[in-house]
Amino acid sequence: MSQQLLRVKDLQVEFKSGSITNKAVNGVSFDLDANESIGIVGESGSGKSVTATSILRLIPNPPGKITGGDIYFKGNNLLEMSNNDIRKVRGNEISMIFQDPSTSLNPVFKVGNQLMESIRTHQNVSKKEAKKKAIEMLELVGIPAPEKRMNMYPHEFSGGMRQRVMIAIALSCNPELLIADEPTTALDVTVQAQILNLMKDLQARLQMSIIMITHDLGVVWETCDKMIVMYAGRVVESGEVKAIYQNPLHPYTWGLLDSQITESQESTEALSAIPGSPPDLSYEIKGCPFADRCPYAQAICYETTPELAEPYQGHAVACHFQTTEQQLERREDAYVDGSTSRS
Ligand SMILES: Nc1ncnc2c1ncn2[C@@H]1O[C@H](COP(=O)(O)OP(=O)(O)OP(=O)(O)O)[C@@H](O)[C@H]1O
Ligand SMILES: [Mg+2]
């Protein structure tokens, strides 16, 4: 039987700027088992990175603060751990590939030394063995002439190469949980495929669990068992990747899947992006946060916030019209009534 590794429960994170409070993450929950991978998708600003960095308690405070919820890792609440204990978890049991790699490499040390140090901190090996492993890791992530590159500084690498070095460092710790925040966006398709294969390979070998944050639904399809769709700091849909692709229940998820299909077809027409923009999170939102952009919104959507419900086992959605049948009915109604809007 698989064992629960991570449990994020009702996570709330806020950022303060003067008298304005931005509720960046508002009640996010999900579980992850050992050896399982979960994708987090959602448009820019939906709270994906904030959710991920909260797990490592790396939210800058001020202006940020985790104001509610629990994060259990192997049964221990990370949010209640001492600073000393959480430091031991970081980079050891949980490692993260950050969205911005330039913040994570030390500019004054050679890349090889940074990689070797990481290997030696987490694996009991001699300096010579660490060097061999470091070269192997650089080779694995597709850095050409890795031996030569070992003696170079981060600024001598290209952006994509720095990202690959970060991936090598994160993977060299043999973590139980790897959080990868847009790990392959700066890379070309061939290298992206190599890196994703490398992650899958290591996952199988090390029984590693993965949280994969990405804009690319194809990456989720290729690498993840389950996924959550975030919108305005909340989870609007969650479940097995297959179930969501075959039967997406939230109109926002339909939009995401639609725009992705257009993208992969390399259409010359404008992307069928979802019109409008997400709500300002510094105001209290009445009703469903997606209502203003939802072509099928009805009166109730502007009044009451839908809770996450599970109309199909293991497949949850936060929409007043949860089942496929209800949604089809609603679509027909919307065409008859014309669209409603928040007054
Ligand atoms: N250090 C910070 N200070 C103030 N606000 C922040 C900070 N970090 C994040 N936020 C806010 O939190 C919200 C969620 O940001 P987050 O970085 O999680 O988005 P995201 O889903 O990762 O987006 P992207 O796809 O662009 O990476 C945004 O409104 C953002 O402005
Ligand atoms: Mg992000």
Key traits:
binds adenosine-5'-triphosphate; 343 residues; 8-stranded mixed beta sheet; 4-stranded antiparallel beta sheet; 36% helix; binds magnesium ion; alpha/beta
Provide a concise account of the structure shown.
This protein has twelve helices and twelve strands.
Question: Any chance you could write out the topology, listing elements then pairs?
Answer:
Blueprint lengths: L3 E14 L2 E14 L3 E5 L6 H8 L8 E10 L2 E2 L5 H7 L4 E4 L13 H12 L4 H14 L5 H5 L8 H14 L4 E5 L7 H18 L2 E5 L3 H7 L2 E6 L2 E7 H6 L4 H14 L34 H5 L5 E4 L2 E3 L6 H14 L6
Parallel strand pairs: 3-8, 3-9, 6-7, 7-8
Antiparallel strand pairs: 1-2, 1-4, 4-5, 9-10, 10-12, 11-12
Helix pairs in contact: 3-4, 3-6, 4-6
The chain binds adenosine-5'-triphosphate and magnesium ion.
Task: Give a written overview of the molecule.
Helices cover 36% and strands 23% of the residues. It is α/β, with parallel strands linked by helices and 343 residues long. The strands form two sheets. An eight-stranded mixed β-sheet has the order 6-7-8-3-9-10-12-11, sandwiched between helices. The protein has a four-stranded antiparallel β-sheet with strand order 2-1-4-5, covered by helices on one side. The longest helix has 18 residues. It is globular, with a radius of gyration of 21 Å. Bound molecules: adenosine-5'-triphosphate and magnesium ion. Adenosine-5'-triphosphate (ATP) binds next to strand 2 and helix 1.
